[in-house]
Design brief:
Layout lengths: L2 E3 L3 E6 L6 E8 L6 E5 L8 E3 L13 E3 L5 E3 L2 H9 L5 E5 L12 H10 L1 E3 L5 E5 L3 E5 L2 E7 L4 E7 L7 E7 L4 H6 L5 E3 H9 L13 E4 L2 E2 L10 H14 L6 E8 L3 H13 L4 E5 L2 H4 L17
Parallel strand pairs: 4-8, 10-18, 13-18, 15-16
Antiparallel strand pairs: 1-9, 2-3, 3-8, 4-5, 6-7, 10-19, 11-12, 12-18, 13-14, 16-17
Length: 307
């Protein structure tokens, strides 16, 4: 059956790119509502923004949603990954600014908040998108593919010149709590060479090494406390991919492969999937199928504790 949160849950922090304070409150929603954002700081016009692939205003550094009136909310990927990883299908996210708070740069605090307050089973069956044809998109040397699978599996590969990152590869099936256990505490990362350029362009103004991001410079990890995982960068890219795939509008049953892929390319992949005739169909999940969806089998004691 579909799930929502049992009670409203608030998360307060600052935006990674804007540096501005923000509070996002995840509110229970009715069956078949889906995931929507509501800009509570706006007094007039359409304040509702759908968390859906066709509302993405594509950006290389974060996932930004925009409604038909031009109202936006950005950096939604970590919260979306947490909701998907906790098996939340319906929620209204009330937010008092244009960017979701970054918290510690991962999804762990979102996951712990949702699970601490509880998940409410609802009266409607879960619907999922079943991938029927392989679809691939490319942008230079970056590639993203979605192929048929009876569960959601994510494979990711990255390759950076910085020796502290280098070549990393990982594969995970997203059920049985694997997102919370393996990925949710992996933080966003960047190279020191990119920090000044981003900040000069008005981005990463809220970034703090060690507090909400991991910064690399050659063979050095500049963030105090070092890494949470030896392969934290590729784990974070998989976290991002889950959050971006959650914008399909329902859970996906498919095998996603990302090679140097990012937010924009994953959204391009979703657009191509839904635009390819007979590549995907919406199905009602029976018990065994639902057990293969993200969020199934999540155990509180397996959620990493973070400072």
């Amino acid at each position: 059956m579909q799930n929502t949160v049992k009670t409203a849950i608030s998360f307060t922090g600052k935006g990674l790119h804007s540096g501005k304070p923000a509070t996002a409150t995840v509110v229970p929603a009715a069956p078949n509502f889906g995931i929507w954002f509501k800009r509570t700081d706006v007094d007039v016009g359409d304040r509702m923004i759908p968390a859906r692939w066709d509302a993405v205003n594509r950006s290389p550094l974060c996932t930004k949603l925009e409604n038909k009136s031009g109202l936006q909310v950005s950096t939604v990927e970590h919260l979306m990954a947490a909701l998907a990883g906790c098996g939340i299908h319906n929620a209204l996210i009330e937010i008092d600014g244009p960017e979701v708070p970054i918290l510690d740069g991962s999804s762990a605090l979102f996951v712990r908040g949702v699970m601490a307050h509880g998940v409410q089973m609802q009266s409607a069956p879960v619907m999922a998108f079943e991938v029927l044809k392989e679809v691939t998109v490319r942008d230079g040397d970056a590639v993203a593919t979605i192929a048929p699978s009876d569960t959601l599996r994510i494979d990711f590969e990255i390759d950076f010149a910085d020796a502290a990152i280098g070549h990393q590869q990982k594969s995970l099936v997203m059920n049985n709590g694997s997102f919370a256990r393996e990925l949710c505490d992996s933080r966003t990362f960047c190279r020191q060479a990119d920090v000044e350029e981003m900040q000069a362009n008005g981005l990463a103004l809220g970034g703090m090494p060690g507090e909400n991001a991991v910064v690399f410079d050659g063979d050095a990890v500049l963030s105090p406390g070092g890494l949470r995982h030896a392969d934290e960068p590729v784990r974070h890219k998989m976290l991002d991919a889950l959050g971006d795939l959650a914008l399909a509008g329902a859970p996906l049953l498919g095998h996603y492969t990302g090679l140097r892929a990012g937010h924009s390319l994953t959204n391009t992949l979703l657009r191509a999937l839904f635009e390819t005739p007979d590549a995907v169909r919406l199905v009602q999940c029976d018990g065994p199928m639902a057990a293969r969806l993200p969020g199934h089998g999540l155990v509180w004691n397996e959620i990493p504790a973070v400072a």
